[in-house]
Amino acid sequence: MMASGKICKRIGKTLNFMSFTLLVLFNFIFFPFQLNCQDITHNDTVKISEVIISRKNTKELRPFYSGVPIDSSAFQISNNKSIANLISENTNISFKSYGSGGAATISIRGTGAGHTRLDWNGISINNPMLGQSDFSLIPVSAADEISILYGSSSMINGNGGIGGIISLETKPVWSDESSVSVSAGAGSFGNYSGTAAIRTGNMHFQSCTKAFFNNSENDFRYLNTETDATPSWETMKENRVRSSGLIQEMYYRGEKSLLSARIWYQSANRELPYSMLTRQPGLHEKQNDESFRTMVSYNLKQGKSDISLTGAWLTDNLDYLNNLASIDSRNRAETMVIKAGIENNITHDFKISFSINEELNIIKSNNYENIISRNIATLTGSAEKSFSKQIRAIILFREILDKETLLIPDFSAGVHYRIMEDKDFVLKASVSRNSKIPSLNDLYWYPGGNRDLKNEYATQYEMAYEMAGKPAGGLSYYFDIEGFRYNIQNMVLWRPGANSYWTADNIQNVNSSGIETSLRLIYKVNHFYSRLNGGYSYTRAVSHTDGNASSNFQMAYIPVSQAYSSLFISLGKFYSVWNCNLTGRRYLTSDNSHYLHGYLLNNITAGAKLAGRGRSFDVSFSADNIFNQSYQAIAHYPMPGRAYFLKLTLNITK
Predict the structure, then answer these.
(1) DSSP string, 1-43
(2) The domain spanning residue 364 has which CATH number?
(3) 136 torsion bin: left (phi>0), alpha (psi -120 to 50), beta (else)
(4) What is the rounded distance in angstroms from the CA atom of residue 599 to the CA atom of residue 580?
(5) Residues spanned by the domain of 413
(6) 288-300 pLDDT per residue, tens
(7) How many structural domains does the chain have?
(8) pTM of the prediction?
(9) Residue 338's closest CA among 316, 354, 360, 353?
(10) Is the dihedral of CA 436, 440, 444, 445 positive or negative?
(11) CA 287 to CA 322: how far, in whole Å?
């Protein structure tokens, strides 16, 4: 038995090494020679035996900046998961997670969780108290498209997204047909989930109703290496998650206008996981999240102008209960937003736009001394000009009014240079100044909030090279490499204070710099389709504070190296996906003396899609963490080992 165990362990290590080698090869393949190219803004939608793969190039989204839309095939495979799972499996973005069922917060390019905006159809849905979002609560099925805009790209959508923006979009399908889609799945650790969507209407009116739920016991086994001299296997307890939601969308299209109304209700009840150090089932830590979001938008095409008007009302309830510590925290945040914009094409190569955004936050919390309200207004203007077929440029200015105080204006400027007119070899560069106002918890939480906090702001520099082409029949590629440097001033951090509680404070500044690269290869012939994605990022995020011994050390929980790769293969009615993600070492202390080991995760999915007479049936089987890697995303909080999931999806169109 011992010999066979050693053999299995050695095989596991060998396979992990093979997957790591494959990942590295994916990320560093490069074509340095001249090739016949296809247009870089082409929307490459490919149909292979009823499996639809759609990919919009970044340039179609932001020609001057950097970003990436998530492929629709990844949506299809991950529609039972949260967007935290979807993004971590398909990008170099880092998440801090307290384990299955626990909160998941994001870090983009060495910035903090509060430096990333989560937008829903152009409106930020970050909790104004926290200044951030819990990405474990947002299901993939809530959106039709998800785009990630890095750094300077966020300036077009709004302020505060120093790291970037995760943009969720819901869109109508203009058709006279009606469709019903039902998906149900079950898997390891008592995981059950389901989604349903009904679309109906005609070429002028569309209605879409979505419902979803997820229940999980999360009673996985983990190796406890923290409390005893000899590691022991234990079972996670009191880690249940119950979540559900409903989305209703309605669209009316006139000859030159579009009126849309959206409602999104969601609730989640969670037992928060305990750490390996406590080993105390019975703490009864619970958190209940409830959100209700409504939005009405109107878009009008008038001559050369595009006019938009959006109104939104958002409510978030977050209640936390800890019986052992006698904590009963009840928090309610209400946000009202009015956003208006106009975009005018002065000539075929010159465009200007203006927008105004008014946001009112009202907070009722037993952790504040009284009811708090805050009003923030922003005015943004931008101009975009093409100087030739090869050179385009944009400049943007934004003024922010915080209550009665005008802040120093923000700005962004970018240039897009096509090296040769008939080739898709592109250089891009941008510089920006982006402000972030402290969250309401940073200012008013009692105790620990600091009303004297300064606003954060970042000076951001980015430069990228991109190339795309079609070197041979059926084969196409896209490659990019980008360097960035962010200098964040007055960054807000919560640190242990002189008393027994933590306090919010501005540290002097943080410099985050690095390199990111990605590669996509697509090969299609007859009924065979394959797509290989890969990427690598190197990030150095260090703080510089006078008289602080932690200066010039990597910031906590920011991995220096990250990499990912995915291989999608479709043949006839069958498809399979292999995802591989590498997260490097993450430091836990300001002097980098303690750290979490890096880890390599491998997930596989295989399925088949059968279609005929307006119906399609999709069955898929997934195995996550196939080599049963034992790892932690946050110190002392174990993550699940190998897990299986079976999903069935039925689509009916009439």
Answers:
(1) -HHHHHHHHHHHHHHHHHHHHHHHHHHH----S------TT--
(2) 2.40.170.20
(3) alpha
(4) 11
(5) 2-653
(6) 999 999 999 999 9
(7) 1
(8) 0.86
(9) 360
(10) negative
(11) 9
